[in-house]
Design brief:
Number of helices: 23
Low-confidence stretches: 241-259, 617-625
Largest sheet: 9 strands, mixed
Distance between the termini: 76 Å
Helix content: 40-55%
Radius of gyration: 40 Å
Strand order of the largest sheet: 9-8-7-10-11-12-17-22-21
Structural class: alpha/beta
Number of strands: 22
CATH superfamily of the largest domain: NAD(P)-binding Rossmann-like Domain
Strand content: 5-15%
CATH topology of the largest domain: Rossmann fold
């Protein structure tokens, strides 16, 4: 029968409902006459009585269609629908009274009142009976998904009522954290304790939990969902009313924050006129052009109107993405854009690119910079960061390019990890070539963390906040220097343009930022509260996981004592110890031999010998305060 009911179209269903209503109208009319002692047989046996009944049914049917009562779906039958049935019953009673008066067969007014009441009860109850019968057939036809509603508030009650007659979903209980609601019955369902969820699931064969607490913060909903998912349940969350009408995004309530706003840094202008003039009309090669710093270098160099921009990148995907993003900008600026796929350690490829494209300026940002990954892969890190820099710089000097700028890191200062040691060796290589170069001006620019880069903690924190936490911090007291990528790249270009040869520039990074406080700030900016001993009901917890191998508590920017000012207030120079040409040659030779034999210890020995303060040991990690 259920399949037959489903197969009917809307017109056929309306016809059935009208037929049922008219049948009940006739029965209610006859029952009212009999109840009030009227001569039913005499009245209906004659032609006038039959005509009166026929006209009553016809006019009732027309009124029902006008009121669109047959259009009300059974599973949408509510108080409004009952109200319209009441209106129809009243009109039918008035029609019956009028017809009897016209037919000169008046009855006591109480007869028509009884008729109206009986018709109202019959029509209203018939809808409920038909709905229950139809739902029963649906239940017999297929298995229904048994669900528990988490939250017995207003939203939960509305959801329960909406699901009572659902074809495939059957609510069996509420669970709620509010003790005052527990052990009550709401909307026909018991309210149970969340701590008993596993027993509820087993006893009532529950398959799914519906979170009906849209006002609860997203992290707390995520925490509840994780706990329920761990119990093998499917969890779905009901959106809030403001989300349903489009005032809030359904998927993500996180807002994009300005990086400068997070760090409290002022927005700086881009490169100066001096930098623009230095790159205008020249062929510029940017290595690592698909990375965070490299791609921003490409964007800002394009604004300087170079003759050609060559993007050198090891990652095919990164090169594809940056080339796709920059192609329209290059066309608009009438700049030739060239994408080169390869490694800076390939001497022949580097030589061909520099010569074929007549490169004037090299901005070297290519490096492996993830501390933990380079610590786990020291040979690859040293080969790319040191030998790659040596190969690229040597070919730059051989071709007689105008400038070479090395983008370095604060981790090169008294490093405690392979990545920092490799960057310091790269700085020493550039300083040595700068002392021997005739035409090429070599310089190094050193700065700290870039907000939003692939190695920054900020994207990780945002991802953890979006998942509901916890946010992980290596140490409660760890600090780092931060700068926006736009400001860092702008200052790199300015420093590179003012270099005379051999300078090591250090950017003003401001005060170091405590990472724990940064995590608290990000949680607060996203509209959540930090869960702690002082606030155990907070949204997101911050967890201390311990320093990783080779990681410092505090980074530094200067190896020696003090620094010198330049013509730019945010750029300084430092005077640091250098290696001689023989020492650099020895370091490169030993490093190449270690690479050839895949000797990790030999490679580490090169770094320990030539990099001040470096030791690749477990005890390099600073003790906790």
């Amino acid at each position: 029968m259920s399949r037959w009911a489903v197969s009917l179209d809307r017109r056929e269903k309306r016809f059935i409902l009208v037929t049922v209503d008219l049948t009940l109208t006739a029965l209610s009319y006859v029952a009212a006459l009999a109840l009030m002692g009227a001569p039913v047989a005499d009245m209906l046996g004659g032609g006038v009585g039959q005509l009166t009944l026929a006209m009553l049914l016809g006019m009732t049917g027309v009124t029902s269609v006008i009121l669109k009562i047959p259009n009300i779906r059974l599973n949408a039958y509510d108080a409004k629908g009952i109200g319209w049935v009441g209106v129809l019953s009243l009109i039918s009673a008035l029609i019956a009274a009028a017809l009897h008066r016209i037919a000169s067969a008046p009855l006591d007014s109480s007869t028509f009142i009884v008729f109206g009441l009986m018709l109202f009860v019959a029509l209203a109850s018939s809808r409920l009976v038909m709905l229950e019968v139809l739902v029963a057939f649906y239940r017999m036809q297929g298995k229904r998904c048994r669900v528990v509603i988490y939250g017995a508030g207003t939203t939960g009650m509305q959801l329960a009522r909406a699901l009572v007659h659902h074809d495939t979903i059957e609510p069996v209980a509420f669970v709620d954290d509010n003790p005052s609601l527990q052990n009550l019955t709401i909307a026909g369902l018991p309210v149970l304790r969340p701590m008993d969820i596993e027993a509820i699931v087993a006893e009532r064969q529950v398959e799914r939990v519906l979170l009906a607490m849209p006002s609860l913060s997203r992290p707390k909903q995520s925490q509840i969902a994780k706990r329920l998912t761990a119990a093998g349940l499917e969890v779905q969350a009901l959106p809030s009313f403001s989300q349903l009408i489009g005032q809030e995004p359904l998927v993500d309530k996180l807002v994009s924050l300005s990086a400068a706003r997070i760090m409290g840094r002022e927005v700086r202008d881009r490169q100066s006129d001096q930098a623009t003039q230095e790159f205008a009309g020249r062929a510029v090669l940017v290595t690592g052009g698909g990375g965070s710093i490299g791609s921003e270098l490409c964007r800002q160099v394009l604004s300087c109107a170079p003759r050609k921009l060559v993007i050198f990148e090891l990652s095919e995907l990164a090169l594809y993405e940056v080339e796709k993003a920059l192609r329209p900008l290059a066309q608009e600026a009438d700049v030739e854009l060239v994408a080169i796929l390869g490694s800076v350690t390939e001497a022949r490829l580097v030589r061909h690119v520099i010569e074929h494209h007549d490169v004037d300026v090299v901005l070297h940002a290519a490096a492996y910079k993830h501390v933990t990954l380079v610590e786990q892969n020291p040979l690859v890190g040293l080969a790319n960061n040191v030998l790659g820099t040596w190969t690229l710089a040597r070919e730059t000097m051989r071709a007689g390019c105008e400038r070479f700028v090395l983008v370095s890191s604060d981790k090169a200062v008294r490093p405690t990890n392979v990545m920092g040691a490799s960057k310091r060796l790269a700085e020493l290589v550039i300083q040595d070539l700068a002392a021997r170069a005739n035409r090429t001006i070599f310089s190094t620019v050193r700065f700290g963390n870039v907000i939003g880069s692939s190695g920054s903690v900020i994207p990780l924190f945002k991802e953890q906040i979006a998942r509901g936490g916890p946010v992980t911090v290596t140490h409660r007291d760890v600090t780092r220097f931060f700068m926006t990528v736009e400001e860092a790249v702008s200052l790199v270009l300015v420093a590179g343009s003012m270099a005379q040869g051999g300078e090591v520039y250090v950017l003003d990074m401001g005060e170091p930022v405590r990472i724990w406080r940064l995590a608290e700030h990000l949680i607060d900016e996203h509209g959540y509260t930090v869960r702690s001993e002082a606030d155990p009901d907070g949204d997101i917890a911050i967890v201390e996981i311990g320093l990783k191998p080779g990681e410092k508590l505090h980074e530094e920017l200067v190896i020696g004592e003090g620094h010198l000012t330049t013509s730019h207030e945010k750029i300084f120079t430092v005077r640091e110890a250098r290696l001689s040409e023989i020492e650099v040659a020895s370091a490169i030779r030993s490093l190449r031999e270690a690479m050839a034999t895949a000797d990790v210890d030999a490679a580490a020995a090169v770094a320990r010998r030539w990099v001040e303060g470096y030791r690749r040991d477990a005890d390099t990690v600073e003790p906790r305060a």
